[in-house]
From TrEMBL:
SUPFAM superfamilies: L domain-like. Keywords: Leucine-rich repeat, Nucleus, Repeat. One of its GO terms (biological process) is regulation of apoptotic process. InterPro entries: AN32 (IPR045081), Leu-rich_rpt (IPR001611), LRR_dom_sf (IPR032675), U2A'_phosphoprotein32A_C (IPR003603). This is Acidic leucine-rich nuclear phosphoprotein 32 family member. The gene is anp32a. It comes from Sinocyclocheilus grahami (Dianchi golden-line fish). Multifunctional protein that is involved in the regulation of many processes.
Amino acid sequence: MIEVNTTLCSWHAAKVRNRSAVKELVLDNCRSNEGKIEGLTDEFEELEFLSTINVGLTSVANLPKLNKLKKLELSDNRISGGLEVLAEKCPNLTHLNLSGNKIKDLSTIEPLKKLESLKSLDLFNCEVTNLNDYRENVFKLLPQLTYLDGYDKEDKEAPDSDAEAYVEGLDDDEDDEDGDEDEEEGEEEDEEEGEEEEEEDISGEEEEEEELNDGEVDDEEDIGK
């Protein structure tokens, strides 16, 4: 997977040569110009993940058409409406993060019902979350949703696949370390047993030598008599 990651400005995106091969693009904290991000075009036709956090967007009207986009990060911008264009621009979205925007009512997010594949929506720190029965009404409005703000209808937290993979990786490392420790302990035990056997052999040889010496002395005494 090719990933272009810049947190300074979108100028880097404009310099990407093989845009059709890029699957992840991170443009957090760059600055947009009249709702446009320089270099972000529909040439990124294989793009599956796009992050434009805190770029000063007031709408999504100027997003390029990205048919394969699945995850879109738009948090900490100034978007207050115009979400109906997402169904046209990014028809296959499964995850949408609008946290920290200026979304105040349910009618603003109603156009998202056209995103039939949308499974996860985040609206943290938006005024709409202060409405009565906010969660219940959003799930009714967008029946295709599985998770809202990280939780399903039964308030069960959404699994974090990346975190789980990381934890599994740690477990694997620990298992490897335990295995290495066991091997080392086994080697140490073998070495100790070998040393003990050598000591026993040496002591046995010394005892045999002593017995031989004693025997020679006894023979000499018998001859003297």
